[in-house]
Amino acid sequence: MHKINTASWAAIVLTVSMPFTAAAQQLERIGEAVAGQATEISIAGPSGDKLLTAMRESSGHLEVIRWSVATDGAITRYGSTVASDVVTHTALDWGTMPGSGTTYWVNAVVSGGWAKAISWKLSGNGPKLLSNTDLVAGASECDVATLSTVLDMGLFAVVCQIPTIRLMLFAVNFEGHIGPGLSLGDLGLGTRPRVAYAGLDPSGKPRVLSAFRDANGKLKVFLHAVGWGGSAMTPSTPTSGNPGRGSTMTAAAPALAPSGSRPGQMASKAACSQH
User: Fold this and answer.
1) What ranges do the domains of the chain cover?
2) Is the CB of residue 222 less than 8 Å from the CB of residue 268?
3) Contact 237, 254 (CB under 8 A)
4) 99 forms bridges with which residues in the sheet?
5) Of the candidates 202, 201, 208, 203, the residue with the CA atom closest to the CA atom of residue 170
6) Measured between alpha carbons, how far is 25 from 41 in angstroms, rounded to an integer?
């Protein structure tokens, strides 16, 4: 996942670079493209022909644009979608839907003080909004990371500042709709939350690494293992909702039960801080 955050209005500029000399690790610019006025920019995609940018456009709404990078470095802009949400923060990552392996993208955004998750897929040459789900109120910043390689489950993690730092786990079903989530709870007071997929533990459980700046200004890092009980993880169809302005979609997700004796929580494996 790659993100750029800006403090003032600026046109979004995409550049493509490649190693100039392997020994010196220099970069040569080989492509460039420009879109409209933007702040709060994030970018993600599985390949050069499937790249999405998510940004806060000039009116404050979330705009998602599809891009493609050719072998010669030429960058092509395709379709775009402007969502109904007025956002103050955006993060973006991509994963694969359970069963089909279709690529989806998930935005973690802050809109009206709410942390929200918005899922997308490609339809024709542009992004199509699949679901738009409120996660937690009182949020000011968030980040997202997918666990798309794990057991074909469509999992993704979101970390939010509310103002404590909260880590949550969600899943998309085979249509890309976001289902109910699991919350670890609060990790402590802090700012600048970030999250990443940290591979599998020796027993095969996925791990999530979260980091933030704590109340003392130090970097704090947590590692969590995500477990479940049983093997019933069959996604189902959405239960309600209509993606669009002001709507929230909920969907039944794979039945996840974390390991241990306390349902609804992930097991914290380690925490460390910078001294």
Assistant:
1) 2-273
2) yes
3) no
4) none
5) 208
6) 26
- The whole-angstrom separation of Cα 42 and Cα 44 is 7
Q: Are strands 61-69 and 114-123 parallel, antiparallel or unpaired?
A: unpaired
The two structure tokens encoding residue 267: 């097991």
Q: Report d(CA 107, CA 55) in Å as an integer.
A: 10
For 93-147, what is each residue's pLDDT tens digit?
999 888 888 899 999 999 999 999 999 999 998 999 999 999 999 999 999 999 8
3-state secondary structure of 157: strand
CATH code for the domain defined by 2-273: 2.130.10
Distance CA 47, CA 140 (A): 31
Q: How distant, in Å, are the alpha carbons of 11, 51, 121, 158, 187 from that of 127?
A: 20, 10, 6, 21, 34
In our burial notation (b when 16+ CB lie closer than 10 A, e otherwise), range 72-87 reads ebebebbebbebebeb
Q: Residue 21: is its pLDDT beyond 70?
A: no
Structure tokens at 209: 């690494």
DSSP, res 92: E
- DSSP assignment of 189-213 equals EEEEEEEEEEEE-TTS-EEEEEEEE
